[in-house]
Amino acid sequence: MIEVKKLVKRFGLKTILKGVDFTVQPGEFVALLGPNGAGKTTFLRILASLSRPSLGSVKVAGYPLPNESAKVRARLGVVSHMPLLYPDLTAEENLEFYARMYGISNHQSRITEVLQMVGLEPRRRDLVRTFSRGMQQRLAIGRAILHDPEVVLFDEPYTGLDQDASEMLDDVLRSVAAKGRTVVMTSHDLARAEDLATRFDVLSRGVIAASGTKDDFKNSNLLDFYKRSLENRE
Amino acid sequence: MTQPSPSFFKAVLAIARKDLAAEFRSRELLSAMLVFSMLVILIFNFALELNVDIRRTVTAGVLWTTFAFAGTLGLNRSMAVEKDRGCMDGLLLAPVDRSVIFFGKAISNLVFMLVVEAIVIPLYAMLYNETRIFQLEFIGVLLLGSIGYIAVGTLLSAMSVQTRTRDVLLPILLFPVAVPVLLASVKASGAIVAGLPFKDYVTPLNLLIVYDVIFIAVSYMIFDFVVEE
User: Fold this and answer.
1) Nearest CB to A82 within list B6, B7, B85
2) Alpha helices for A20-162 (secondary structure H)
3) For residue range A164-177, what is the model confidence (pLDDT) as tens digits?
4) Cβ contact (<8 Å) for A147 and B4?
5) What is the ipTM of this complex?
């Protein structure tokens, strides 16, 4: 579903990604871990067609980037730590706007379905600026899955959420993944990542330093795996 | 899985409609543009202490100066709203040609500018006792000038919004580029206010039409590169 080969990304003289190889099978939930500045957000922005690779090849849902970016975007949902929502529009109006941008026909029933899924149906006519951070993040997920994408990218979705909101978001993420979608999520919250993901990749200093599943941890846990991966790179 | 395909025009209208709905609810942008325009008109009224003959010669200049500065306020704010809340990424993620964003934003910016003009023109007529600005020809020039100014302004605001000094940068970039549109607009509308025949302002009018076409075509062609990271 996602195939990245020898991906290099440079900003001026600074090389952020130094030959990343990364493959995700359909239906996999991959947690992309790594310290600040490792290049996780840059990597996700390239997968989302928001940034061009300097070198290397990237294929998402079978289409190469950047040449077929519109086809990729039609099959992709993105949730970042910014909600990408308009505060002066209601929840329903925000979703209507994105439904029109994605050309979704019969969008009213789909909007209702999505709002029910993220638990915001009773607040559909409220302005987004009156929503808490957690509610905005849930609506952002609703926005990202409105067009029923095959691949969903989450960039630090827990940033700024309190405990209750994070737990609520866990449920929403599980239901997104339960539909058989391919998910890639960056996060610093290792406990949550361990609970949700099926595979764990560690991005460090611009390359994938380690990749493993829960079976690979054996008697240890994700934190040990993460620490070992970073130590091996030093 | 079959993905829906959005139409170009529906996506353009969706952006314009979204901007108008958000603005008519918050009224942040329109009120700033209107208050600014009214203040400029009032200041000119007191500063110039015009007699009737001079008034006719400065009308076009005063109005276009007002609209150009007020338009800059609107252009800056319109793109900043998208950038500050990360919504620009939301627009860029839509599976449509990215020139859709340009046309959608340009339409909403044009509507805001025309709303301001529709309020400022009667105010100007009242303060300066000038009724020739209600002529259909004058309104036509106002429309053509606004289209050209907004076309180039929307493109440049998409560029400047990505910089830290966007508030300062937009006017610095915009005014030199928009000079042909503003000059042609002032010439044509000045001639209409002075009561000159059509043949006397057909040249600036043609220039205005050509500039509009060029600015829209260039913006359409390069907008994708402007918003790319």
Assistant:
1) B85
2) 40-47, 69-74, 91-101, 107-117, 133-145
3) 778 877 887 888 77
4) yes
5) 0.89
